[in-house]
Task: structure prediction
Amino acid sequence: MSIDIGTHAPLCDQKYVDVFSDALRHSREQARLRGEAVVACYALPLAETACDLRTLFAAATAYDVRWYWSDPGERTRWCALGATTVRECEGLQPVSEAAQALAGLNRRVLCFGDATARWLAGFAFDAEQPRDERWREWPNGLLMLPRFVVEQHSEHPIMVTVCVQVEAHTDTERQCDDLIAELVGALDGARIDAEQADRAGTDRTETDMAGTGGTGGTGTDGARCRDAGDGRRLFAAAGEGEENGEEVYEATVSSDLPKLPGLPDLPPGMEAWTEAILSIEGDLRQGFYEKVVMARRERVSVQSFVRLPQTLRDLEARYGDGVVFAVALGFQVFAGATPERLVQARQGDVSIDCLAGTAPRGDSRSEDDSMAAMLLASHKNREEHAFVLRGIVGDIKGAVEAVNVPDAPVIRRLANVQHLYTPVRGRLSTTMSILDIVARLHPTPAVAGSPKQTALQIIREREHMDRGWYAGPLGWIDGEGNGMFVVTLRSALMDEHGADLFAGAGIVEGSEPLTEWRETEWKMRPMRVALGQELMR
Result:
């Protein structure tokens, strides 16, 4: 016998549902013995035709908190819906706060069969920067255990991991039935949305339809842990590489930037940008600090929610060397395609990306190679890269052992830019977790500057915006200590009316305002193209 989701294909075999029911009963007994609620995690194999995960992420608006993650390097993508346990971290050290909380929270989790409790975490770039109106619903840090995680990995069956709170007096038979019905409803809703989008053509063309979203948002009333019941309306109460080996080049439909600063047709924000860069470059020439990363924001009008599944598909297709991510909180979605893995831990092995120094892609192979050669020979870019690498190696000292660093950087090509790249490898110290490494690394000189605290103060004084979760750490960690965190670059914060695009550039001695502005233009293009604001050729 199988459970049907209305797609003429089974959700899963009944025998797996029966085992899940047994796991819930066992969890109830454990809750009685312990005298406290526990969290049961169980993995169900789904039919291959269950749904498209990008459509599921966009369609499941009954859940105010949703995550999407696609990692082509690991050949995996997953979508998380709702939350069973949430910890909001509003202190000045939110990553360390989350690391301390995780050990205690994990003690309540019982995993059955092949299930693994995957905790998701996201953090603001700067906890000391007051949130502005755009980011007011996004806490300094968020640690959560999802209610459902639907995962596709390589050629393995589609799996859904269910994590649910079980108390000593829980009616587990009814709980099991309700969870299966809830999952069926979410998957079937995604299928219906996909069929309607195909009929209307909204997945591949611009339309005038209004966007949709959930309700509510995360609160910011201090660090706390609460169980989310059924995981719905969770926050309602709170006030770049070659594409699969093929070259991809970009062409903007907008007019070119002016050749010199100070012309009447300067882009919005260019005058303030020029003033800030010149001020910082003057400080650098006097030796006050080594590097500061300045970022800027650009607003675009687009029906971003209408084309959200297609946006995620476009990002995956064009930027396959990076991680495509999306986090939905209430009426907003923060999404991007980042080339930078902050840290990855797998069975104690640690990998860290040093990515700094940027040049555009060429319009031909020879031009591309010429630009790469100039990047490798650029004193300014090599110096910027060296600042970042020294900062990373210094930050992980004592936490990562047997550190291995190549003698020189290489070129890493993304679809729209190319970077200087150095991989850092080592072994995680036995007393450390991946969150401890994140706390030490963030913010790296690649997104803040050097020295770190001086750079952060300059950013607060002269950037004149709240980065929110842009350039912050985002990722996951499982119960065995494995995990991955990325830096949320090449990203945008979407709402019902448009999107705010974010990008930054490293300022060192000799930096020129127009050159750095153009670098941010290159970096914004992944999201512009995915949102239908620019053309690819």
